[in-house]
Amino acid sequence: MVEIILASRSKVRKEILDKHNIKAKVEPSTIDEEPIKQSLLKENASPKIISKNLAEIKASRVSQKNFNTLVLGADSVIDLNGELISKPNNREKALIILKKLNGKMHRLISSVCISKNGSMIWNYTDVAKLTMKSFSNKELEDYLNKISDEALYSYNVYQIEGVGRSLFSKIQGDENTIMGLPVNKIRDYLKNYE
Q1: Angle formed at CA 192 by CA 187 and CA 194, multiple of 5 degrees
Q2: Mean pLDDT score across all residues of the chain
Q3: Mind telling me the catalytic residues?
Q4: Which of 2, 6, 161, 184 is deepest in the core (most CB within 10 A)?
Protein backbone atom coordinates (compact mmCIF):
# COMPACT_ATOMS: atom_id res chain seq x y z
CA MET A 1 0.00 0.00 0.00
CA VAL A 2 1.17 3.53 -0.78
CA GLU A 3 2.84 5.52 2.04
CA ILE A 4 1.02 8.66 3.16
CA ILE A 5 1.62 11.67 5.38
CA LEU A 6 -0.65 12.14 8.39
CA ALA A 7 -1.31 15.86 8.89
CA SER A 8 -2.08 15.40 12.58
CA ARG A 9 -0.15 15.27 15.83
CA SER A 10 -2.71 12.82 17.25
CA LYS A 11 -0.92 9.74 18.58
CA VAL A 12 -4.22 7.86 18.50
CA ARG A 13 -4.70 8.45 14.77
CA LYS A 14 -1.14 7.30 14.07
CA GLU A 15 -1.70 4.17 16.19
CA ILE A 16 -4.89 3.36 14.26
CA LEU A 17 -3.03 3.64 10.93
CA ASP A 18 -0.17 1.48 12.25
CA LYS A 19 -2.59 -1.16 13.52
CA HIS A 20 -4.17 -1.34 10.04
CA ASN A 21 -0.81 -1.56 8.23
CA ILE A 22 -1.09 1.87 6.63
CA LYS A 23 2.39 3.38 6.45
CA ALA A 24 2.32 7.03 7.43
CA LYS A 25 4.85 9.60 8.46
CA VAL A 26 3.62 12.42 10.66
CA GLU A 27 3.74 16.07 9.63
CA PRO A 28 1.18 17.99 11.69
CA SER A 29 -0.74 20.83 10.14
CA THR A 30 -0.13 24.13 11.91
CA ILE A 31 -3.45 25.81 11.10
CA ASP A 32 -5.28 27.72 13.82
CA GLU A 33 -8.66 25.96 13.84
CA GLU A 34 -10.57 28.43 16.01
CA PRO A 35 -10.90 31.34 13.51
CA ILE A 36 -11.97 28.87 10.80
CA LYS A 37 -14.62 27.37 13.08
CA GLN A 38 -15.88 30.82 14.07
CA SER A 39 -16.09 31.94 10.45
CA LEU A 40 -18.02 28.80 9.45
CA LEU A 41 -20.35 29.14 12.45
CA LYS A 42 -21.16 32.73 11.37
CA GLU A 43 -22.23 31.25 8.03
CA ASN A 44 -24.47 28.77 9.90
CA ALA A 45 -22.38 25.79 8.79
CA SER A 46 -23.36 22.50 10.43
CA PRO A 47 -20.89 20.63 12.67
CA LYS A 48 -20.54 18.07 9.85
CA ILE A 49 -19.51 20.78 7.33
CA ILE A 50 -17.09 22.29 9.86
CA SER A 51 -15.45 18.92 10.50
CA LYS A 52 -15.14 18.24 6.75
CA ASN A 53 -13.69 21.70 6.05
CA LEU A 54 -11.10 21.44 8.82
CA ALA A 55 -9.95 18.00 7.62
CA GLU A 56 -9.59 19.36 4.08
CA ILE A 57 -7.70 22.49 5.14
CA LYS A 58 -5.25 20.46 7.24
CA ALA A 59 -4.58 17.95 4.44
CA SER A 60 -4.30 20.57 1.70
CA ARG A 61 -1.95 22.82 3.70
CA VAL A 62 0.55 20.01 4.34
CA SER A 63 0.04 18.67 0.82
CA GLN A 64 1.21 21.96 -0.73
CA LYS A 65 4.67 21.32 0.77
CA ASN A 66 4.87 17.63 -0.22
CA PHE A 67 4.64 17.29 -4.00
CA ASN A 68 3.14 14.06 -5.40
CA THR A 69 2.47 12.63 -1.94
CA LEU A 70 -0.89 11.68 -0.46
CA VAL A 71 -1.65 13.64 2.71
CA LEU A 72 -4.36 12.60 5.17
CA GLY A 73 -6.10 15.27 7.23
CA ALA A 74 -8.66 14.48 9.91
CA ASP A 75 -11.00 16.31 12.24
CA SER A 76 -13.53 15.23 14.84
CA VAL A 77 -16.24 17.29 16.50
CA ILE A 78 -19.17 16.67 18.80
CA ASP A 79 -22.63 17.68 17.59
CA LEU A 80 -25.09 18.12 20.45
CA ASN A 81 -28.45 18.91 18.81
CA GLY A 82 -26.73 21.14 16.24
CA GLU A 83 -24.33 22.79 18.72
CA LEU A 84 -20.67 22.35 17.86
CA ILE A 85 -18.61 21.21 20.84
CA SER A 86 -14.84 21.40 20.38
CA LYS A 87 -12.07 19.74 22.36
CA PRO A 88 -11.43 21.35 25.76
CA ASN A 89 -8.15 23.13 26.42
CA ASN A 90 -8.44 22.97 30.21
CA ARG A 91 -10.15 20.90 32.90
CA GLU A 92 -12.82 23.52 33.65
CA LYS A 93 -13.96 23.43 30.00
CA ALA A 94 -13.87 19.63 30.06
CA LEU A 95 -16.25 19.60 33.02
CA ILE A 96 -18.59 22.07 31.27
CA ILE A 97 -18.65 19.79 28.22
CA LEU A 98 -19.37 16.68 30.30
CA LYS A 99 -22.22 18.51 32.06
CA LYS A 100 -23.69 19.45 28.64
CA LEU A 101 -23.49 15.84 27.40
CA ASN A 102 -24.73 14.38 30.70
CA GLY A 103 -27.75 12.12 30.17
CA LYS A 104 -28.05 13.01 26.47
CA MET A 105 -27.37 11.51 23.07
CA HIS A 106 -24.79 13.29 20.91
CA ARG A 107 -23.20 12.64 17.55
CA LEU A 108 -19.46 12.34 17.15
CA ILE A 109 -18.46 13.37 13.63
CA SER A 110 -15.11 12.28 12.18
CA SER A 111 -14.07 13.60 8.78
CA VAL A 112 -11.03 12.61 6.76
CA CYS A 113 -9.58 14.07 3.59
CA ILE A 114 -6.78 12.99 1.29
CA SER A 115 -5.05 15.74 -0.67
CA LYS A 116 -2.39 15.66 -3.33
CA ASN A 117 -0.43 18.70 -4.56
CA GLY A 118 -2.58 21.03 -2.47
CA SER A 119 -5.99 19.79 -3.65
CA MET A 120 -8.49 17.40 -2.12
CA ILE A 121 -8.82 14.16 -4.09
CA TRP A 122 -11.01 12.20 -1.64
CA ASN A 123 -12.97 12.75 1.55
CA TYR A 124 -15.28 10.85 3.85
CA THR A 125 -17.29 11.70 6.94
CA ASP A 126 -18.63 9.17 9.42
CA VAL A 127 -20.97 9.72 12.34
CA ALA A 128 -21.32 7.73 15.58
CA LYS A 129 -24.08 8.23 18.14
CA LEU A 130 -23.27 8.06 21.83
CA THR A 131 -25.74 8.25 24.70
CA MET A 132 -24.24 9.30 27.98
CA LYS A 133 -25.57 8.00 31.29
CA SER A 134 -26.76 10.51 33.88
CA PHE A 135 -24.18 11.45 36.50
CA SER A 136 -23.97 13.83 39.43
CA ASN A 137 -21.51 16.71 39.16
CA LYS A 138 -19.32 14.95 41.76
CA GLU A 139 -19.24 11.77 39.64
CA LEU A 140 -18.19 13.80 36.59
CA GLU A 141 -15.44 15.51 38.58
CA ASP A 142 -14.26 12.11 39.87
CA TYR A 143 -14.17 10.80 36.28
CA LEU A 144 -12.06 13.77 35.13
CA ASN A 145 -9.62 13.19 37.99
CA LYS A 146 -8.92 9.69 36.58
CA ILE A 147 -7.99 11.04 33.12
CA SER A 148 -4.48 12.27 32.23
CA ASP A 149 -4.13 15.70 30.61
CA GLU A 150 -2.96 14.13 27.36
CA ALA A 151 -6.00 11.85 27.12
CA LEU A 152 -8.32 14.67 28.10
CA TYR A 153 -7.17 17.02 25.35
CA SER A 154 -6.75 14.31 22.72
CA TYR A 155 -10.07 12.56 22.94
CA ASN A 156 -12.72 15.23 23.28
CA VAL A 157 -13.24 14.50 27.03
CA TYR A 158 -13.73 10.75 26.77
CA GLN A 159 -11.38 7.94 25.89
CA ILE A 160 -13.71 5.34 24.40
CA GLU A 161 -11.20 2.48 24.45
CA GLY A 162 -10.37 3.20 28.08
CA VAL A 163 -12.21 4.41 31.15
CA GLY A 164 -14.46 6.66 29.02
CA ARG A 165 -16.55 3.69 27.83
CA SER A 166 -18.16 3.58 31.30
CA LEU A 167 -19.75 6.99 30.67
CA PHE A 168 -22.15 5.62 28.05
CA SER A 169 -25.32 3.58 28.12
CA LYS A 170 -25.38 3.22 24.32
CA ILE A 171 -22.73 3.48 21.61
CA GLN A 172 -23.73 3.21 17.94
CA GLY A 173 -20.99 3.39 15.36
CA ASP A 174 -17.46 2.42 14.49
CA GLU A 175 -14.98 2.60 17.36
CA ASN A 176 -12.23 3.92 15.06
CA THR A 177 -14.55 6.75 14.01
CA ILE A 178 -15.13 7.58 17.67
CA MET A 179 -11.35 7.63 18.23
CA GLY A 180 -11.00 10.07 15.31
CA LEU A 181 -10.27 8.02 12.18
CA PRO A 182 -12.73 5.96 10.07
CA VAL A 183 -9.82 3.79 8.97
CA ASN A 184 -11.70 1.14 6.97
CA LYS A 185 -12.79 3.70 4.34
CA ILE A 186 -9.27 5.13 4.20
CA ARG A 187 -7.82 1.65 3.65
CA ASP A 188 -10.39 0.92 0.90
CA TYR A 189 -9.51 4.17 -0.87
CA LEU A 190 -5.75 3.57 -0.66
CA LYS A 191 -6.13 0.00 -2.02
CA ASN A 192 -8.00 1.32 -5.04
CA TYR A 193 -5.58 4.22 -5.49
CA GLU A 194 -2.66 1.98 -6.42
Answers
A1: 105
A2: 92
A3: 75
A4: 6
